[in-house]
Amino acid sequence: xxxxxxxxxxxxxxxxxxxxxxxxxxxxxxxxxxxxxxxxxxxxxxxxxxxxxxxxxxxxxxxxxxxxxxxxxxxxxxxxxxxxxxxxxxxxxxxxxxxxxxxxxxxxxxxxxxxxxxxxxxxxxxxxxxxxxxxxxxxxxxxxxxxxxxxxxxxxxxxxxxxxxxxxxxxxxxxxxxxxxxxxxxxxxxxxxxxxxxxxxxxxxxxxxxxxxxxxxxxxxxxxxxxxxxxxxxxxxxxxxxxxxxxxxxxxxxxxxxxxxxxxxxxxxxxxxxxxxxxxxxxxxxxxxxxxxxxxxxxxxxxxxxxxxxxxxxxxxxxxxxxxxxxxxxxxxxxxxxxxxxxxxxxxxxxxxxxxxxxxxxxxxxxxxxxxx
Length: 373
Fold this sequence. Notes:
Among the domains are: 64-152; 216-296, Immunoglobulin-like (Sandwich); 299-372, Carboxypeptidase-like, regulatory domain (Immunoglobulin-like, Sandwich), CATH 2.60.40.1120.
């Protein structure tokens, strides 16, 4: 499940509560009552798909990757609040501990556990001061429980990965159908009750705006990823060049361009290490559209041998970047998101043998560099 899908699931759950709260009032409009019934059935179907993905369960039924993301999602909001508190204390060490972003969690399992443990222990040591910030021993305990599940979990087998991909696609289709029903509910509800029950209507619209987005302005919301499964977001520059409108996606790969004229436009997407992409779209005044963009990364791959024999566990990196990997048992390696231009590839093994080779990366290139040293 992508972050965008998770936000929709949250919104659906809140709307279910809203429909239950105002069931008597809403039932007087029969077409709306019928559409609400359809929505509730579709929302229940989405929960079944979520259970198939493992998101409705706890612990080791989730994939290691999903547990890792759950851990980050649990800790990051607390660190932001804790960092706000640390700024008021003037304590530089506390600020360094809590002043983190999602990218800081991209570590090996061993390093991630050390990193998380330090954050949680520092929160525990200062829990009395953090209590007003809604950080409690219970919340810290939940994060520790997820961490324990993550460490214990095994990487999911290929068949499970294939299942998750198919379910993710089914989830996307189910949400699209559910949104169509919800759009009908939007119009029926606001059209009927905007004047006669303004407080109820405002509560409904507020729920939609805050938790996902019924926009009163013309809006394009981009979701930028580096994979078809939408699991790896990309920070990218997005723009409508013809209107001179520019924005940057956040760490979740999301970015909005708001309040521009209706018509046919092109969204231009640029990110370091990826091929630029143009996405044409058409929009009406006051509408919001969502665009999923999957960028194609610049790649370097190849085989490293020593004396003609494949060399395993050779460190390979792009000089001047944090792009690095290690050859597999057959000497193969692959690096992605390589910046365009002239660069240097470095390699070294445990025996102290090392070397480098220059390359020129062209946007969109899949560059093969085989090495024998």
